[in-house]
Request: fold
Amino acid sequence: MSSIVRHIVCSVSLLFMGTLLAENPVAVRLRVDLGHPNVPAKLKNVRIEKGLNANSYNASWMKEKKDRLLCYEFDATDEWQEAVFTFVSDRDAVIPMVVKGRWYRPKNAKDILPLRVLVDNIQVEGSVLNNGDFEELNDKGFPNSWDLWAKDDKQRKEMVTPKSEGEAQSGTVFLRVWHNNAAVQRIEVQKDIPVRIHVWYKRAKLQPKEAQAPAKKK
Reply:
């Protein structure tokens, strides 16, 4: 994905998410995006099996290409919990899976603030995901098979197992993500074959002061 396309997608997504967050501006939630406007695969939610206050939606801000991007969101608590959901594609394709969180802009502020989520032990059924527990690291200390979206390597290093955030759900490595610091891997999907995704996640300790109190499991 080119840097220009990524910038356009992120910019439009920021505008749309700002509208969504106006109703609940500081909720800390996991977000998983599937697909890309340049990949002509239409994606549809089949079911959400686990995850607190979960919802899914196609990217209406992409207008005629909205069905090419499918988003899932889940409230985060102070404990590791599992999100499980299934989607399907209308054709064979290779699509990005983007694992991230949200953002918040205080009233009259210029800059946005990160709403951070910890993620670990991602598993995929119906496709192949490499290094879903992030345990295999390269020479820089970043997880193999994953693209870490961040401004620079300093930010990428801050995404990988921050000591202040406690222990991993599985093994010793986890990631801390938000809207602008995301973990990305491309997966292959087949026409009409359901793909089931499991993600373990929790609310990060490092949050802006405006962040809502942690969600509670029901």
